[in-house]
Specification:
single chain, 228 residues, mainly alpha, Four Helix Bundle (Hemerythrin (Met), subunit A), 7 helices, 0% strand, globular, membrane
């Protein structure tokens, strides 16, 4: 989850991917999240089978509680992401309303995964290091402690990239062609030939064009800022 989920989060934020089509990036984003979900399920099955084979109680530590919570919410995040942002059935207003929640929940799940990993490696050290003890700072403890620091730095870097506006994928060129529904693009010959129209008609055309601009930008934003 730490490595694959982080890749899914920043896949829209890498400048060398901005030349790829939005649909292709959607499939890459969804595919990475699907791979992360499959690996998370496999790992959880392995943990439960290991505990049962060694007669170790299940779900007793804070690490296990938070980890299971993260996986459950991640599965919901993945399902809603597929249903709302990948399939072409959800209306644009609903996508636009759900996008901030989708982005925030994705980043919150990633931060929870980092916290779960930190608790897990600490728990493993405490249980495994008996002679020498963890409190005496043997090389194994120092190695894992530095690994934990690297996880914190890595998570902070991913969250920084996902929250900076200058890392945001720019709108596609076709989003700049603004055309009202059933009409023509703004500033084309259809508007220039309206020599007999009144000033009120021209004002209405500009209002319709402005509404179409906002609708197109909202659709483009709802389709691009996905971080499942």
């Amino acid at each position: 989850l730490v490595s694959v989920l982080s890749s899914a989060i920043i896949v829209y934020r890498l400048p060398w991917t901005w030349k790829c089509s939005k649909l292709l990036m959607k499939f890459i984003h969804a595919g990475l999240n699907t791979i992360a979900m499959i690996l998370a399920i496999v790992s959880m099955v392995a943990v439960f089978e290991f505990h049962n084979a060694r007669n170790i109680p299940n779900m007793y530590s804070l690490h296990s509680w938070i980890g299971l919570t993260a996986v459950i919410f991640y599965s919901l995040q993945l399902f809603l992401g597929f249903a709302v942002f990948l399939l072409p059935f959800a209306p644009v207003p609903f996508r636009a309303a759900l996008m901030p929640i989708h982005v925030y929940s994705g980043l919150a799940i990633f931060a929870t995964v980092i916290a779960t990993a930190l608790m897990g490696i600490t728990e493993k050290l405490i249980f495994s290091l008996k002679n020498p003890a963890y409190s005496t700072s043997p090389p194994e403890a120092m190695f894992v402690n530095f690994l934990g620091l690297l996880l914190v730095v890595f998570g902070a870097l991913i969250l920084w990239m996902a929250s900076r506006s200058h890392w945001k994928r720019p709108p596609e060129e076709n989003a700049k062609v603004l055309r009202p529904i059933g009409g023509t693009p703004e500033g084309t010959e259809a508007e220039s030939t309206m020599t007999d129209g009144s000033n009120a008609d021209k004002s209405d055309l500009r209002i319709n064009s402005e509404a179409a601009r906002k609708q197109n930008l909202k659709l483009d934003e709802a389709g691009q800022r996905s971080t499942m």
